[in-house]
Inverse folding.
């Protein structure tokens, strides 16, 4: 277990003790997978949340109140995530929760948030998080269903109609596999081969060989996250595939290119966010300023580039700050109500407009179709 607060907040608390002044505070909780197999998701999320809380407190807080952040590292373990969510509510008395780096940890946290009436913003991708709509649960990443639709639209534009699919059996991979199957027909896509692999598998050449030997396959789609998609990408290159390979937004980061190898990843397409092409955005792009400010601040704070996943956390913090500001209250129900009336909030992932029927608030226009070229990201559309 790990509990962390910002340096700025600790300093302010010490000053308050010395002066005897009472410090009003907004108690914000978070549980992310900063270590473990999903650390590539949770580490930039944790860093982003801490950085933003420090920035907000340094500029006067929200409506004059400082944020008191309690952040736990669940290591990607759903049981730990549930324990920490309970602790955040019962012991830390938070008014809102951010987290759930994975679908599994998210589902654990949301069960607590719903039962206790605490607004929760998830950082995971599965559509099941917000469909059906749950009263206190929102999320910032695009859904896996949206990723399928974006990918299939790009395939259709290239006259690709018959594909092979190889999916991870993890929560994200299985969910996206199911969603792609549901929308494929409507998008004019026929799935001729359907293979899977486990989270610990180190070689997918048998499954990919079966796909390659399936007559008529024009492209390969790999729903999944973690090391699996990188292995698939290397195996595709090793087998000499001459058809396009599509990955999911679950690997939309520079770390994927590094893990797969730039040569093997060359030409891979996937739906991603504006963050990955920050240096290519036009100044009149609606997301230009938000993306530019965040990437610059993150690099200054940590000396590295951010990722799509840190961007999800950025948007979650921004949404809560906006909701508390508009509500003029730290009551969880008031924050929830304000979240649900969010309109036109520009984040790194897209522009959010929530409603009682929509706790994601993004459409397909928030996705950018990207392609890996020369070891970096380029925009296809």
């Amino acid at each position: 277990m790990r509990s962390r607060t910002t340096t700025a907040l600790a300093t302010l608390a010490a000053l308050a003790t010395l002066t005897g002044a009472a410090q009003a505070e907004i108690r914000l909780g978070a549980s992310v997978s900063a270590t473990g197999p999903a650390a590539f998701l949770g580490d930039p999320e944790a860093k982003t949340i801490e950085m933003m809380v420090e920035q907000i407190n340094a500029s006067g807080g929200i409506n004059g109140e400082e944020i008191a952040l309690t952040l736990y590292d669940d290591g990607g373990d759903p049981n730990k995530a549930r324990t920490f969510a309970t602790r955040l509510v019962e012991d830390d008395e938070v008014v809102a929760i951010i987290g759930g780096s994975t679908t599994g940890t998210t589902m654990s946290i949301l069960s607590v948030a719903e039962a206790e009436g605490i607004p929760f913003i998830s950082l995971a991708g599965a559509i099941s998080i917000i469909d059906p709509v749950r009263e206190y649960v929102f999320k910032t990443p695009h859904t896996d269903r949206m990723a399928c639709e974006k990918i299939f639209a790009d395939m259709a534009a290239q006259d690709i109609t018959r594909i092979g699919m190889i999916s991870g059996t993890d929560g994200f991979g299985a969910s996206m596999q199911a969603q792609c199957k549901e929308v494929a027909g409507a998008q004019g896509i026929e799935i001729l081969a359907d293979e899977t692999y486990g989270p610990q598998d180190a070689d997918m050449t048998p499954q990919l060989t079966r796909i390659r030997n399936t007559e008529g396959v024009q492209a390969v789609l790999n729903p999944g996250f973690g090391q699996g998609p990188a292995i698939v990408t290397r195996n595709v290159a090793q087998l000499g595939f001459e058809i396009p390979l599509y990955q999911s937004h679950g690997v939309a980061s520079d770390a994927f290119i590094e893990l797969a190898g730039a040569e093997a990843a060359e030409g891979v397409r996937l739906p991603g966010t504006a963050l990955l092409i920050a240096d290519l955005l036009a100044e009149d792009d609606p997301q230009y300023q938000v993306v530019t400010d965040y990437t610059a601040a993150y690099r200054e704070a940590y000396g590295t580039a951010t990722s799509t996943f840190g961007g999800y956390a950025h948007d979650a913090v921004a949404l809560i700050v906006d909701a508390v500001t508009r509500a003029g209250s730290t009551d969880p129900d008031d924050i929830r109500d304000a979240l649900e009336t969010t309109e036109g909030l520009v984040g790194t992932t897209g522009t959010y407009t929530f409603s009682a029927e929509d706790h994601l608030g993004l459409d397909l226009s928030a996705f950018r179709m990207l392609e890996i070229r020369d070891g970096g990201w380029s925009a296809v559309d």
